[in-house]
Amino acid sequence: MEFAVFPRRMRSTGSSVAVISPDSGREVLPVATPMSDVAQVGPRPLAQSQIMLWLVCSLLSTAVLLYLGFSVSGYRATYPAADSFRAGTAQLIEITLIREDKQNLSCASNAVLTGLRCGFDAARNAVAGLDERHTLRPYNSVKGELLLAAGLWSNLPPTAELPSSRFTVVCNFHVASALRSASLRWAPTAKFEPLERSIALGFLTDCEIPP
């Protein structure tokens, strides 16, 4: 009896190789392929140091944004509309006061700006020969803005004709400059308190008590 030897064909089946018999075409012997021979394809995992760096950067960015947000909101709450006064401009402003404020409100400083100055010098001595139109006094607007202004009372009726309770006055505020080296007093017997920041100064015109 003679035997014929036929060459065998190999067919890959993914992770194994099947031997094909040439006479039948059937797979007769699967041969396993080592997993090490199969290419591993996929995303590489992030290293632990990369993850930590990303977390640190995210936390620092969040902290900076929160700090800036609170700083800006705190500044606006303390000094509302601080950027609304610009030197060389004139704008409408509404001031809140009582008629006794003509004697109550004073400031002290040696600075003289565009002919305007406080009624007291830095040594708390009254400045002689200063008329009301050039005498700076501190005022608060209805928005809480602090300013030094001259000429308010010369634009109003006599004190006796003013309202007996708190009222407001609408004026044109002509901004001349800014001043920090000054102290403010809110009552004749009160102490002068130094300013902690620069505030706008100027003079007031066309003042009216709104109906």
Explain how this protein is built.
Helices cover 17% and strands 34% of the residues. The protein is α+β, with helices and mostly antiparallel strands. The chain has a domain at 90-208. A 5-stranded mixed barrel has the order 4-8-9-13-10. It has a 3-stranded antiparallel beta sheet with strand order 1-2-3, with no helix packed on it. A hairpin with a 6-residue loop joins β2 (16-20) and β3. The model is unreliable at 1-21 and 69-82 (pLDDT under 50).
Give a quick rundown of the structure:
The chain contains two helices and 13 strands, in the order E-E-E-H-E-H-E-E-E-E-E-E-E-E-E. It is an alpha+beta fold. A five-stranded mixed β-barrel has the order 4-8-9-13-10. The protein has a three-stranded antiparallel beta sheet with strand order 1-2-3, with no helix packed on it. The protein has a three-stranded antiparallel beta sheet with strand order 5-11-12, with no helix packed on it.
- Secondary structure tally, helices: 2
Task: Work out the strand percent.
Answer: 25-35%
Structural class: alpha+beta
Number of strands: 13
Largest sheet: 5 strands, mixed, barrel
Q: Encode the helix/strand succession as letters.
A: EEEHEHEEEEEEEEE
Q: Segments where pLDDT lies below 50 for 5+ residues?
A: 1-21, 69-82
**Spatial separation of the terminal alpha carbons:** 132 Å
Detail the topology: elements first, then pairings.
Blueprint: E1 9-12, E2 16-20, E3 27-32, H1 48-78, E4 90-97, H2 101-104, E5 106-108, E6 112-113, E7 116-118, E8 135-141, E9 146-150, E10 167-179, E11 183-185, E12 193-194, E13 199-208
Parallel strand pairs: 7-8, 9-13
Antiparallel strand pairs: 1-2, 2-3, 4-8, 4-10, 5-11, 6-7, 8-9, 10-13, 11-12
